[in-house]
Amino acid sequence: MTDPRSTVLHHRHAALGASFTDFGGWLMPVRYTSDLAEHHAVRTAAGLFDISHMAEFWVHDGEAAAFLDYALAGRISGMKVGKAKYSLVLSADGGIVDDVIVYRTGEEYFLVVANAGNREAVAGALADAVEPWRATRPSPGAGRSDGAFAFVAGAEVPRIEDITDRMALIAVQGPAAQSVLAGLPGFEVVGIPLDEVGFYAFTSAEFDGASVVVARTGYTGEDGFELMIPVEHAELLWDALLEHGAPAGLVPAGLAARDTLRLEAGMPLYGHELSLDIAPAQAGLNRVVAADKSEFVGREGLATRASDGAPVLVGLVSEGRRAGRAGYAVLGPDGERVGEVTSGALSPTLGHPVAMAFVAPEHAAPGTELALDVRGTPVPATVTALPFYRRKK
Asked: How far is CA 288 from CA 50, 102, 156, in A?
């Protein structure tokens, strides 16, 4: 077995006393002090996350927008420069290879950020889509009098570059995130001002002589930013954020807090709520799929998948302190198994257990009374709409 990789910030985490775990093939900090303290810091002030394990790909030149329309489930060509979009990489039979965020940095220039454990799968899916996509392009002269088309047999294709090892990603999440960044010494926004950057949009900045992509995105349900910077500048940025943000309540936060934060926000995690065995509709992600596109990877597979009776993702809330965990059975009114928990925890913000689970559709309506099999004891749970938590605007 290959040893997990470390991010460029590993020594910083160790110096802060972090505990580590293998996550997606990377040795990542689980916590620095307390899961609860780190969670609450993000909800009330700000948390600092190393997310440099995520995979990044540049897709650019040629007809990159048209290619990504084919390679991904969403309509990427409709994005404006400076915007981000959540999308899916699908398998031929309509399963989910990964969920990704796409950033349009130019007319034919895109950044695709994928999950760490799916780096090779996404790289392979993008590469495998090139030739089938070219086959969908019009022949020279078809439908046009001048015969001018950018892609014909033997023509140039978009470039796909895996830049994961060259870039670091650092997230500042929480209601104080913008104020922390705005006053950071040596950090200069050279694009749209931070207070004008909308959700799922980004701007440009400079720090330590390096260009930084500053995106208003995140995985916590709070306001915040994700910063992409060359690895050689990451340690200095991390240190500066910790020092400058401390008076505002910013603390380093690990995977444990990140998991309870995203669970409260109803955000799926690959390998739990998303997988090759799950179709977008089951996970409540039909809105992500531009089904009216004439061609895209997974289109035929989605059309032929049997949807009737397929389990669907729901939220579950219960009382007390005993939380359902991934793999626990969901029980129906007569004690029969009707589903399975994919993620669950005692919510630090709400004070009661919450869970996401796939259940049979006849048990999926909000308000339906079910139970969780918690180590042999049925614990009553009620189906509720996701997310469990929404931040105050």
From this structure: 27, 12, 29
- C-alpha 307/C-alpha 236 separation (Å) is 50
pLDDT digits (tens, 9 = 90+) for 288-313: 999 999 999 999 999 888 667 899 99
> How many whole angstroms separate alpha carbon 118 and alpha carbon 90?
12
State the Cα–Cα distance between residues 270 and 259, nearest whole angstrom.
12
Residue showing tokens 């398998």: 91
The answer to whether the bond into 140 is cis (omega within 30° of 0) is no
CA separation for the pair 127, 213 (Å, rounded): 25
For residue 49, list its beta bridge partners.
171
Q: Are 48 and 115 in contact (CB under 8 A)?
A: no
The alpha carbon of residue 135 and the mean position of all alpha carbons in its chain are separated, in whole angstroms, by 31
Tens digits of residue pLDDT in 311-351: 999 999 999 999 999 999 999 999 999 999 999 999 999 99
Q: Are the CB atoms for 311 and 361 separated by under 8 Å?
A: yes
Give CA–CA dist 61/266, Å, rounded. Answer: 36
Output the CA angle 326-20-112, nearest 5 degrees. 75
Strands 19-23, 224-230: parallel, antiparallel or unpaired by DSSP?
unpaired
The candidate with the shortest Cα–Cα distance to 290, out of 65, 124, 57, 70, is 70
Pair 331, 378: CB distance under 8 Å: yes
Residue 331, both tokens: 């029980």
Structure tokens at 292: 């009216």
